[in-house]
Amino acid sequence: MKRRNTPTKEAVLKLLAQSGKALSHEAIEKAIDIPINRATIYRVLNQFCHDGTVHKIVAEDGKQYFAVCMKCEGDAPQEPHFHFRCTSCDSIECLKEPVHFSLPEGYEVASVNCVLSGLCSKCSSHNSTCENE
Amino acid sequence: MKRRNTPTKEAVLKLLAQSGKALSHEAIEKAIDIPINRATIYRVLNQFCHDGTVHKIVAEDGKQYFAVCMKCEGDAPQEPHFHFRCTSCDSIECLKEPVHFSLPEGYEVASVNCVLSGLCSKCSSHNSTCENE
DNA sequence: TTTATTAATGCGACATTATTGCAATAATAA
DNA sequence: TTATTATTGCAATAATGTCGCATTAATAAA
């Protein structure tokens, strides 16, 4: 199916790229300057995923987050990497850290979903040494 | 809050232990011989998690799966490990493979949720060499 | 520039997962 | 045997994500 350029797609992709993080549909809906329907956001995001522009992460909260593929070089086919979810500022970021593992005989991996949760550097330092902003 | 032994708890824990896998509330409800309400299953499972008897995994389908902590020795405080979700037989198992990673300065990890998806050895061999059962 | 094609969108409805309040039940202590 | 209160079932609810359908609009064709 041929793609068309629309304000919606541009806005979503721009937002994802600028934020540099993985965002939920809700975060996108809030952060974006034009009103976009929830169903549309999902359709756009899934299309991006299908086209390889964006990748999806499912966190332990069971929600889907979407991030551009990737600040890094970009030509390599996107090595699986860890994601970090800060439970304080509720954002998810892609880590440089690649995911390494070995599997028992006969197993075939199709996708990798690895999320570490806790406090990012900002929030952990806030908690220990600073006041909240 | 003090715990009480009930047929429900016994049945759920026994099922999880016997299966050796991570099960969803739905799988538990189906597999168990006595009828148990969905809400009750979740409450029991979350209680087990809280008590450290069971751990929770969230797969890329966004669903929660629960597994006993663990066939292995059991005295060590349960090292984070990979989980494998077979998309064919739709089961999740704990892998021996531990999760290793390093984090940027200042980050603090509270929980680890790593799920690999694909075909387990049984299903991948069925696909390539055998008929379906 | 105008028209035709069909991808994209908004809306409402829906399926699913998970949680919560409340009254009834039952496990344990007294 | 009785009292206490953890546990359970039920119904209601919140939230996430998907789908069908009619309308709109991006792009190609005339």
UniProtKB/TrEMBL annotation, chains A, B:
Q: Which domain of life is it from?
A: Bacteria
List the cofactors. Answer: Zn(2+)
Short name of one Pfam family for this protein? FUR
**Positions that bind Zn(2+):** C86, C89, C120, C123
One GO-annotated biological process of the protein = negative regulation of DNA-templated transcription
Sorted keywords for this record are: Metal-binding, Zinc
Cofactor: record remark:
Binds 1 zinc ion per subunit.
**Classification via InterPro entries:** FUR (IPR002481), WH-like_DNA-bd_sf (IPR036388), WH_DNA-bd_sf (IPR036390)
The record's GO molecular-function terms, alphabetically, read: DNA-binding transcription factor activity; transcription cis-regulatory region binding; zinc ion binding
- Its protein name is Fur family transcriptional regulator, ferric uptake regulator
